[in-house]
Structures are given as C-alpha cells and as structure tokens.
Amino acid sequence: MSEPVTTVRLAPLRRADLRRCAELEQQLFPGEDPWSEHAFATELDGGHHYLGAYAGEQLIGYAGLSLAGRPGDMEGSVHTIGVDPAHQRRGVGRLLLRALLDRADQEGAEVFLEVRTDNAGAIALYEAHGFDTIGLRKRYYQPSGADAFTMARPARPKEST
C-alpha cells in the first residue's frame, strides 16, 4: 500500500484548475468520453458544489456534487470524483467523498451516484460510506459501452444543536 498523503487541503475548485481537471480526466478515463475544461466550467457556472484536493498548490484531485429540491426534501448526485494516478490509494478520494457527503448531510439529502461495475475499489469505498446498489445502467459509459451500477445512500438529517 502507498504512503498516505500527509498534507492535502480541500478547497472550492478554482477556475484556474479546470485545465488540470480536464488533463486528469484524459488520464483517468481513457476509452471513455472524459470531461472537457468547458464541461467543468459549466458545472461551476451551474452552482454545483465542486472541491479540489491540493498538495501545496498542485491540484491532485477533484469532486463534484449537485443538490436539487426544496429544503427538507433535497436530493444529491455525485457527478465525479477523480484523483491523480500518482496520488491514488492514499486516502484522497475518501477525503473528497466525505466532504461531498458532509455537504449533502447539511441539507439532509439522499445521495445517488453511478460507478462502473468493474471498479471494485470505488464500489468498496462507496459501500463503506453507506451506499447500496439499487440498479444497473446497461452501456452507461460511452463510447466503451461499460455498464454502471446506480448506488444510493439514504439521507442523514442534520443534527440539531
């Protein structure tokens, strides 16, 4: 197992990092339809919750969550989580996922996501955070035609203070 990253800072994703996000997408999702810099910009412009994971000033990971609905009846969707291959298996993805889930929990939102059926590591991470498989999307990823599981985590209402 790789050494854990000792200093990773999570912060709102910066427009200056969108090119790096697109570069990481190319590395992480070969044979698929990786997101472009424009796709990330559209997500930010849409007001979605996007975080960057930084080692110093270098972006080493990113994650995004959308929230929809009315207060008390919110639903979340994890749009993406990506970690630089040089920094994988060091807890960066776990930190990003926890931060997204913390945001969803602030709204008491149930959270959904899709994950490739052959991505055992990601599936295990999601299950460890309370997600269950609720469906199968045949040929979800394009152009490869890979299948995806739809997973869901029940809402965790805000704790009253």
From TrEMBL:
State which Enzyme Commission number(s) the record gives: 2.3.1.-
**The name this protein goes by in its record:** Ribosomal-protein-S18p-alanine acetyltransferase
Domain N-acetyltransferase residue range list: 8-156
Keywords annotated in UniProt: Acyltransferase, Cytoplasm, Transferase
Q: Which GO terms describe its molecular function?
A: N-acetyltransferase activity
Q: Name one Pfam family in it.
A: Acetyltransf_1
Give the family this protein belongs to, as stated in its UniProt record: Belongs to the acetyltransferase family. RimI subfamily.
Which major enzyme category is it?
transferase
Q: Which PROSITE patterns match?
A: GNAT
Q: Does the keyword rRNA-binding apply?
A: no
* InterPro entries per UniProt: AcTrfase_RimI/Ard1 (IPR006464), Acyl_CoA_acyltransferase (IPR016181), GNAT_dom (IPR000182), YpeA/RimI_acetyltransf (IPR050680)
* Organism, scientific name: Actinokineospora spheciospongiae
Q: What is the lineage of its organism?
A: Bacteria, Bacillati, Actinomycetota, Actinomycetes, Pseudonocardiales
Q: Which Gene3D superfamilies match?
A: 3.40.630.30
